[in-house]
Amino acid sequence: MQDIDHFRAEVSHWLNENCPKTMRTPMPDDEICWGGREFAFVSDDQRLWLNRMAARGWTVPAWPKKYGGGGLNGAQQKILAEQMQAINARSPLQSFGIGMLGPALLEFGSEAQKLHYLPQIASGEIRWCQGYSEPDAGSDLASIKTAGVDEGDYFSVTGQKIWTSYADKADWIFCLVRTEPDAKKHKGISFLLFDMTSQGVSTKPIELISGESVFCETFFDAVKVPKQNIVGGRGQGWTIAKYLLNHEREMIGGSDLLFGGADVCALASAQIGVDENGRLNDSILRAELAKFIIDEMAFDAHLAMTKNYMRAGNQLGARSAELKYLGTELNQQRQNHIMAIGGLGALIWSSHNNQTHQTPRQWLRSKANSIEGGTSEIMLSILAKAVLKMPS
Ligand SMILES: Cc1cc2nc3c(=O)[nH]c(=O)nc-3n(C[C@H](O)[C@H](O)[C@H](O)COP(=O)(O)OP(=O)(O)OC[C@H]3O[C@@H](n4cnc5c(N)ncnc54)[C@H](O)[C@@H]3O)c2cc1C
Which of 60, 86, 154, 391 has minimal CB crowding within 10 Å? Predict the structure, then answer.
């Protein structure tokens, strides 16, 4: 107990000394630090904050120190999160490396791969993208056709990926490739890592309904991928892909970003007004918001319990589908309410994606929440089969 109290005091002191004041304000989407070779820091403070946190291993507090992590146990991770929240400290680094590839490498990577790739993720040096979906392989992911032909000490990779988030900004890709064309569908896939500057890689941004362009079509034309860049063995890619997807779904469903931002009740009170008892002047919206707030509180409690479960070293496995489904459906409801509260004014659209008039953009962006990382229908199927054990 003394140790924990001492740790809490030390963390609080260090954060107060080292977190720049400008990194203690709510973080707009365009100020998220993604890291990477080409990343343009919004300020010197942002760079400083990342470097200081990375030096302590606190961008990935749960990872072992030898891989760039903080080596913190579950109780210590919780304290760090609480103390950061107490001063409104921004997350110093957010990346697919931290939330997706890192956990997969920790589980399936060779020691050499872990020592090479994990510290680069922890420090924000290398930004990763995810090459899973293809034009004919989305929910039915195991149908991928991108081929890796064995050329001795390398695979020659040819094919196309689609919806590759930030492929045009990423340094490296973790990619599902069919290397065993004669094996059964799920057994013929390998999990390869390669540099996006490799000869034969090209990207073409796709615009979203919100006007943003967060993802790309990604093309591979005889890209040479050294065999040492395979994670797990040949044909083991499906097992790794599924494991990584569980972490991706935890990341999406448990993301503070989904639930940060506007207090819906305060927004409604300010916009619509309240009666002499402080009740919202719109009885229908009032009832809808009451239901939403109760659902959100229940989800928050569930999320807190789940985070404790994971900090204790447990894996969520297929139950990550639960977080992904509930978290993203709730965010869509939240965005619908914000639009309803705003009335006609909420429809004001700016041709530039700047900080004003974000409401319709965020509402439209939330439409993708129930698709990215696996659709809500697929999440419900996973829960039915793998968690509730219902007959298929
Ligand atoms: C914002 C965003 C970012 C993304 N980023 C990436 C990325 O970085 N890398 C990457 O590889 N992919 C990415 N994706 C792609 C995403 O993983 C796929 O869009 C998703 O898996 C669905 O595949 P699909 O689009 O081919 O739809 P489909 O699989 O064609 O599905 C179409 C519809 O049919 C339903 N459906 C399909 N099969 C079934 C079934 N068996 N049972 C019930 N319903 C079913 C689906 O639920 C959906 O409603 C991203 C998508 C979005 C929206």
Answer: 391
